Amino acid sequence: MTGPGLISAVPLLRRAFQWLLVTLFALSLIAFFLVINAMQLTSPGTAQRILSRAVADLTEIDAALPTIQADLAEEAQASQQATVTVPHFPIAVELPRAEATTISTAELRSRLLSEAAAAIYKDGMSVWAADDPEAKQNIDLLSPEGAVQRGLGLLSDDNHHALRIAAIVLGLISFILGGLVFVSTKGMSRVVALGAGLLGAAVPSLTAAVAARFVFFTASEDQHDYLIARLLDLGNDASWLALRNYTILTLVGLWLVVLGFGLVLVEIRQRAISAATAVDNSSPEA
Fold it and tell me: Same structural domain for residues 76 and 218?
């Protein structure tokens, strides 16, 4: 026989289960949005733009370019090969011999940076100093240089494909959990529940993105090493992508919650009007 205590506990258990689903939905969305941001950051266009800027800073190409161009033209004139390797550049870049003698400074700079970025994106940081087989990169992993190497190494085609698979899996999980949230709630409360899940994922992520941007900015301001400061500025700029995405998601989640509450109030009012009308219709005529 079912006791009154158990009957009264059923709504509480149902509510707890609904909040558990909303929490799981929010956690899955946090992971999903994190992977989406990483996937956007490692996409060919975005990643190679970042790598191009990083290579320009790391190689101090603007200072070295006059010497590179002069020696390139000299080697091209002396060579009988169809292509010439650009000298004094840590990533091997080949140019046709005829082009090497006529290329302008701006074109040479653009060519070096674009091909270096494409090589790093495709093959990783192992292409650095690839023109010197004896070169070894003994970089302390805990040093700023090691952090730069690891960070740039993440911007690769392989990582982009892996993140795409992860995004599909997490997207399916989020979709299933969102569906469970939808079917476990009733009426317009569904909109509130889905908005709460989205808001619960977006707000912590937005907070983390703001904190990361602040850390990059303050570290860059306090950094006395010009090269490290420039690379921190690059990280600060890259964090803008996540900040923008999470701001949009927060606003969408907030809009859904406000809209849902408005619809719930309308729904409650309609029920009250229907109940009052039913009472009036059922009462005997005077």
Answer: no
